[in-house]
Amino acid sequence: MIEKMNMSKVEQKKQLKEKRLLTAAFDLFSSKGVNDTSISDIVTHAGIAKGTFYLYFKDKYQLLDIIVQEKTDELLIDAMKSANEKQFENAIDQVVHMGDYIMDYLDQNKKMLKIIYKDLSWGVFSRTREYDDKNYDRLKPIQDKFIDNIVALGKKRDDAEKELYLILELIGGIMYNAIVHEKPYTLKEIRSSLIVMVRRMIKKIKTPT
Description:
Elements: H1 2-32, H2 39-46, H3 50-56, H4 60-85, H5 91-108, H6 110-116, H7 122-125, H8 134-151, H9 157-181, H10 187-201
Helix pairs in contact: 1-2, 1-4, 1-6, 4-5, 4-8, 5-9, 5-10, 8-9, 9-10
């Protein structure tokens, strides 16, 4: 029993150090940029010895991948959950709500947008990293329900998944340029046109039998 308790404390300390490194990296990547942030900067900011870093991560780019995955997971979980919980006449309005939710969030969280850059679709379509995918277990059923509603419009499931991917890529890329650079258009200038594009992408078209 004592041995198990000691192992639990060791694991808790390990998770705490890992979280401190992730938090420090997020702060520095978003303020200084990835290229101008060194591993020494990260461990100093986290208050952890440099040698300890390599017990958890291979390099700063693995850290970046994990941060992007975690942040996009959480945002997509919240956006899709919000859209699934509301009542809409059709899946088109549901997807538009998801897009609005993401745009509003990123507009208020520019720090996060700088980190995830244009990789918004990672949370749904890229599961390549060797890391705890607990968020994916939460995201998958919400994602499936969301795609099911698009399929209900008469789409093939494969087409519905592709459309979701394209929409997330479209929103991610435009949001980054509009919010971070405000070029070639600001979010206020481009938002209504972006929503029109999303609606056109998922308009009701019967799939040929």
